[in-house]
Amino acid sequence: MEILKKYPKLFQWLFLLVVFFALCFAIDVPETYKFIRGQAEFIKDPNQSAFVFLGKEVRYYAFDVFWRLPPLLGWLPIWINDSLFFLMNDWMPMEFWNEDTQEYKTRPLVLQITRNLTAFMTFLIELIREILLGGLETIVAFTSWDWIDANPWAELPGLPWTIVAAGSAILAYKLGGKGLAIYALLSMTYISIFGQWKPSMQTLSFILVAAPLSFIFGLGLGVAAFKSKRVEKALYPILLVMQTMPQYAVLVPALVLFGVGDHAAVIITMIVAVPPMILLTLLGLRAVPPEVIEAGRMSGCNNWQLMSKVLIPTARRDILIGVNQVIMVCFSMAVISAFIGAKGLGFNLLLALNQLNIGLALEAGLCISLIAILLDKMSLAWANKQVDYFGNLNFFQRNKNSLFFGVVVIAGILLAYFGSIYFKDGYNYLFEVPHNKGISTAGFWNKGVDWIFDTFFVYIKAFNTWLIVDVLQPMRALYLRMPAIATLVLVVGAGYLIGGIRSALVVCGLTLFIALSPWWDRALVTTYMATFGVLVSCAIGFTVGTLCFQNKHSTNFMLNVCDIFQTFPSFVYLIPVMMLFGITDTSVLIAVIVYATIPATRYTIEGLRSVPAGLHDAATMSGVTKFQRLFKIEFPLAFPHMMLGLNQTIVFALFMVIIGAFIGTEDLGQYILKALSDKKGAGIGLTLGICVAFIGLIFDNLIRTWVGKRKKHLGID
Amino acid sequence: MSEPVIKCQSVYKIFGANAERMLKEANGNVDAKTFQDNGCIVGVNNASFEVSKGEMLVVMGLSGSGKSTLLRCISRLTDATGGKIFIEGQDLLNLNNKELIDLRRNKMGMVFQSFALLPHKTVLENIAFPLQIKGIKTEDSINKAMDMVKLVGLDGRENYFPRELSGGQQQRVGIARSLAVEPDIWFLDEPFSALDPLIRKEMQDEFLRLQEKLQKTIMFITHDFDEALKLADRIAIMKDGIIEQLDTPANIVLKPATEYVRKFTEEVPREKVLLIQDVMDEKTSSDIGDLKVSKDEIIENVAEKILTQEKTVAVTDSKNNVVGSINPAKIINTVFGGRKNNN
Ligand SMILES: Nc1ncnc2c1ncn2[C@@H]1O[C@H](COP(=O)(O)OP(=O)(O)OP(=O)(O)O)[C@@H](O)[C@H]1O
Ligand SMILES: [Mg+2]
After folding, report:
1. Is the confidence at residue B255, as pLDDT, over 90?
2. Antiparallel, parallel or unpaired: β A103-108 and A93-98
């Protein structure tokens, strides 16, 4: 009793748990209940009940309200779907001039807008693609097919790979010095020699359109939100949901709006990449000290100068993190959008994964990662670049990079020309190494995988079986055994205890949405996988982070490792695990764990680092041991920051679980994947995405509220 | 008399949601307490004064008394809640954006209490920044900035970033930046507070030398009374947003207008403030020695001379006419005694 008086919170939590378990035991599973099967299927079955809402019929299996809530939101996906179709096909038909047929045609407004938008994107992508690879779409866009037939010389030949490789090395040198230049040259050469040139350049042209556009839009909207409270208020909920929305889920509705292909992929990528950019821009601008703004004002800046010369550069740190995020998302999407027909490395990667050709997948994945790291480092170096005012340079010195590039272009063309004479068999290796003619290590990797598999088969299998039978399946069964009402009580109770009535209401709303959707069981499976991944990730990340923090070098090393790993597109993580564990839940979970360990480690280190140095010294002076210091001072103070890491870990884990559907899991992701190939999938995909986003937001809300309170309590921030 | 460069007429600055309405209702009778109860903070309360060309006005007061806020109002970094401000006869609050920008680009310079350097620019770029904003060619602005770097003694560090400089060095960059455009009106918010005593003295001397030459109109905030005495033509003492007294240093010390000012100046070494004429006897006594001192000397500067005399010392005006006398005892009395009771 003493204890309870001393820790009233503890008592409240205990009480909550008791209620939760009591409910779990009190409510039995209805005998006819079929787990996992969608609670509202769109197939008809005589055992189903049905209700009609907004003219949509929702069919569902009757069951106990305490056990599972009825799918009252079952009409939502159908409704979204119908609305989308209505928008696209029937809403506001107007007369538009048609270039091809030279006449006015009636078209719905939205359709016309999206078609124009996609045409513009296509043009941009083709332009870059044809500079890199050659082609004639761009010329045709300005002239006509007839003109090209008459003037066949006008077809763009594309740049030989030697020029692109050397050119990127020169650019890298100009931006970031020798190291970066060598890296650029090596990775470009690697890509070419290993026969990945064409898909790589396709991916690159996609990125070179998507990333700058996302950056510009993100920055612009971030600035707008900074300047106007109203814009911010309007954007905020969207930003919040988009942050935890799996990228998969956006694909489906976008498919309806923009069709398939690279252009659609660019637009979707922007939809996904812009929100974090906005958030980080806003964050950075907010953190600019008011006196710096005043100094800008007093220097006589007008509004534009103030924004471009004072605010944005001062907020550069956060904006750069935004750029990094944009690039990350772009590469991630470069792979994912292969599902909707984007060309390039992503397509090859998916294909190889589908055929279980791990070696090929590995090669494609490596190329993506190489380019991703290169672009990331180049953008960083560009932003940190300095001007030298005193170098008294002559014309040659000032323009040496451009001159050098000129030389490279001529040399490259000559080389390609000689190549065309030298290589008689039809492939000019000095111009472009064809896809299947490069050196391939795929065979080697595949053999390696086979060898590992053969040699360690027994152990891998034993581990796999143990994990699935003894850990995962019981855990999954436990999650599924929770009555909906008990889950609701637990979540809302936690919300109330952490953040009061406000938090409780928010969390309750989010949970109810999922509970009333037709996919509660699947959401539980998603949650179970994510929880398992998060638990393991946190344990690893926390330990590794703490250990690395003991030494300055290892700290920096670890942060760098995190940086690099973060640049890998999420799909790449599936490759090695599939190598080892094949198509099982274990594979997905291990990918989840690896992927989610990154933020866990990073935030642990950063949290520990954020403990003020003064405190550190003060503690050392008062004679505490290293362990005491760690447990008494550093952990408690770093804990709020680490919890934000947990937040990120959860988001990362959820994303990977959803992507894991590609391997084959029975959760929300599987349905999203299914919706991709379903004509009427848009509504389902979007609703599923929102469900996943809400799972993330529930944790997000709880953790953020807790961290806010804790920080106030500790007096930091 | 020519027009004052800065002229304030009952300037108010009140922070808070419905400051304007409350100010109107208060009818010129602003009480900090009642405003605070309504969620408003009074920054500046009914400030009226003028600063003429070439004059240096030093503003003093405790932390939070509204000094920086007053400066911000006059530079229109914040809009005053009430009152009128004229800069060289122009109504500041009626300027449109473009005119305001012109004014700042060409007429005003400001040194900030917390330096406010641009973190992404080097020392040189920071100093050249206002010039570049004005549209001056890169080369010219960099050359000019380099001169400024030399002026504040930072040569050799022009390519450092602010984060690589000590507080004092950063403040010198701030000073150089504000001087780069050669403003006529110069606002300085505790410019020397981050400097060590040696450099501070150097900068003060440099500052006086510059002022002698350039004759700028200056508003200067400081917490250091010695500094104020050394630099000021007039001193304003603020409390809770109200200017309690604005007068010459001598009058502030000798004739404090309010109890607060008296307390504030209690510890001020009077020999540093007072001139001989402030303490001399009007009548010339009979046994006067040979030594003559000017009535415009600060006591501190001539005290030693006078104290070595046994006789009373003659006081002269600028035309060398004897206008009074001073007794060594009076000097001792001024310096060591009499601080508590005036005169
Ligand atoms: N932006 C603001 N919003 C609300 N209150 C403010 C704001 N700026 C200043 N104040 C308040 O106005 C009062 C005067 O502040 P000001 O900065 O002018 O003081 P100061 O005299 O310059 O002090 P210091 O010597 O510490 O610089 C303070 O009570 C402060 O809390
Ligand atoms: Mg101040």
Report:
1. no
2. antiparallel
pTM confidence score:
0.83
ipTM over cut 0.90: no
Q: Which two tokens stand for residue B41?
A: 């903070």
- DSSP 8-class letter at B28: T
- Among B42, B59, B65, residue to substitute to test ligand 1 (most atoms within 8 Å of Cβ): B65
The domain boundary residue, chosen from B253, B269, B285: B269
Centre a 10 Å sphere on the Cβ of residue B257 and count the other Cβ atoms it contains.
15
Interface of chain A against chain B, CB under 8 Å?
A: 289, 291-292, 294-303, 305, 309-310, 313-314, 316, 386-387, 389
Mean pLDDT, chain A, whole residue set: 82
Domain A161-441 matching CATH 1.10.486.10: the answer reads: no
pLDDT, tens digit, 9 for 90 and up, residues B62-105: 898 999 999 999 999 999 988 899 999 889 888 898 999 999 98
Q: Give per-residue pLDDT as tens, A3-49.
A: 667 778 888 889 999 999 998 888 887 777 776 655 444 556 666 67
Regarding whether B169 and B305 lie in a shared domain, the answer is: no
Q: Give the range of the structural domain holding residue B291, as residue numbers without chain letter.
A: 271-337
Q: Is the pLDDT of residue A97 over 90?
A: no
The verdict on a CB contact (< 8 Å) between B77 and A314 is no
What is chain A's alpha carbon radius of gyration, rounded to the nearest angstrom?
28
Beta strands B234-239; B82-87: pairing state = unpaired
Give yes or no: residues B119 and B152 share one domain: yes
CB-CB contact of B277 with B337 (8 Å):
no
| Helical residues (DSSP H) of A466-519, grouped into ranges | 473-481, 484-516
Residues of B in contact with A398 (CB under 8 A): none
B76 in a domain, yes or no? Answer: yes
Domain harbouring B253, CATH code: 3.40.50.300
**φ, ψ for residue B111, nearest 5 deg:** -110, 130
Q: Which residue in this structure is represented by tokens 């964050």?
A: A283
Domain ranges in chain A are: 32-158, 161-441, 458-714
Residue B199, in any domain of the structure: yes
Q: Is the pLDDT of residue A420 over 80?
A: no
Class of domain A458-714: mainly alpha
CATH number at residue B291: 3.10.580.10
Nearest to A310 among B118, B124, B177 (CB): B118
